[in-house]
Design a protein that fits this description.
10 helices; Rossmann fold; 6-stranded mixed beta sheet; 282 residues
C-alpha cells in the first residue's frame, strides 16, 4: 500500500508531512498528515491520533493548534486523518449541508446506501490507517493515544471506549458527547446507519460508558461560551453517565472560551502532557 507525498516542512526540529494513499476501507484516495518529532530519527516514538470536527480536513489542526512544538517537546508523533472520504463518486449531503457527507464522516461505518460504499471511517481510523502508519514511519503502535474536537471528540471517545487496551489515554475538546441526543448526531446516525436507534448506541459515548471494558481517565475541555454547548454537545449527559457508572472524568468547563481553535490552542498543552504521561513520552 504505497504513499504519495504531498508536502514536507521542517518544524521544531522534526518534520510535518502530508500524504495520500489508496484506502480499501473507504474505497477512495484518502489524505492524512503526520508530525514526526526529532526523536523519531533515533527510533520509534509514541503517537497521538487527532480527529478533527465538522467541515475540517487533516490541515485544520496541523495549521492552527500549535501542536508541533508540544509534540516535539514530548517526543510524540501526531497523526491527523481527514474527516471523511472524498473524491469522484463519493456521495455528499443531498442538500449540500455541512453536517453530513463530505467533511462529516462521524467516524462510523455506514450501512445505508449510498454511503456504505465509502463512509467507513471507523475501520479506517481503528484498523487501516494504523497499519499504514506503522508500516511506513518510526512509531510504536503499542504506545498510542487518541484525541479530537467536536465531531472528532465524539470519535475519540467512542473509539477509545470500544477498543479497550488499544489506547493508553484519551481526551477531547468540546465533544459531541451523545449523538443520539442532539440534532447533528441524529441526522448523521440516521443517514449513515438507518432508523434502528439500537445501532446508534455503538457510536454514542454516553451510551457506551455503562459497558466500558476499561476505565481510562477521560480528559474533556469545554468552553462555556461555546455556541453549540446546550443543543449539540451536551457534556452534562457525559458527566451524568460517568458519575452513575464510576467512570473517571475530568470535565473542565472553561469560562469565556468558545468552539474555535483559539480554545484548542489555549489548553492543548494540558492534553499533550496528559497523553505523554500515559505514553511514557519525554
Amino acid at each position: 500500500m504505497g504513499l504519495s507525498q504531498i508536502s514536507a516542512a521542517a518544524c521544531f526540529g522534526g518534520e510535518q508531512l502530508r500524504f495520500t494513499h489508496a484506502s480499501r476501507a473507504c474505497n477512495c484516495t484518502m489524505t492524512f498528515s503526520i508530525y514526526l518529532p526529532a526523536q523519531a530519527k533515533s527510533g520509534a516514538v509514541p503517537l497521538v491520533w487527532w480527529l478533527s470536527g465538522l467541515t475540517c480536513t487533516d490541515r485544520n489542526f496541523v495549521e492552527k493548534a500549535g501542536a508541533q512544538r508540544l509534540a516535539g517537546e514530548h517526543g510524540l508523533a501526531v497523526i491527523t486523518p481527514d474527516t471523511s472520504p472524498r473524491g469522484e463518486g463519493v456521495p455528499d449531503d443531498r442538500d449540500g449541508a455541512y453536517d453530513f457527507g463530505l467533511g462529516a464522516g462521524f467516524y462510523v461505518n455506514a450501512t445505508r446506501a449510498p454511503y456504505a460504499e465509502h463512509y467507513r471511517m471507523y475501520d479506517y481510523i481503528v484498523d487501516e490507517l494504523p497499519q499504514v502508519v506503522s508500516r511506513h514511519f518510526p512509531v510504536d503502535p503499542r504506545r498510542q493515544s487518541i484525541s479530537g474536537h467536536s465531531m472528532g471528540g465524539h470519535g475519540a471517545l467512542t473509539i477509545a471506549l470500544r477498543n479497550p487496551g488499544k489506547y493508553k489515554s484519551v481526551s477531547a475538546f468540546a465533544p459531541i458527547s451523545s449523538p443520539i441526543n442532539c440534532p447533528w448526531g441524529q441526522k448523521a446516525l440516521k443517514g449513515y446507519l438507518g432508523e434502528d436507534r439500537n445501532a446508534w448506541r455503538a457510536h454514542d459515548a454516553v451510551a457506551l460508558i455503562a459497558g466500558a471494558g476499561e476505565r481510562l481517565d477521560l480528559l474533556v475541555d469545554q468552553g462555556e461560551r461555546d455556541e453549540f454547548l446546550s443543543e449539540q454537545l451536551r457534556p452534562d449527559l457525559l458527566a451524568q453517565a460517568c458519575e452513575a457508572h464510576g467512570h473517571p472524568l475530568r470535565l473542565r468547563m472553561q469560562p469565556g472560551y468558545d468552539h474555535s481553535y483559539f480554545f484548542i490552542a489555549t489548553f492543548l498543552a494540558d492534553h499533550f502532557a496528559h497523553h505523554a504521561r500515559a505514553l511514557g513520552g519525554e
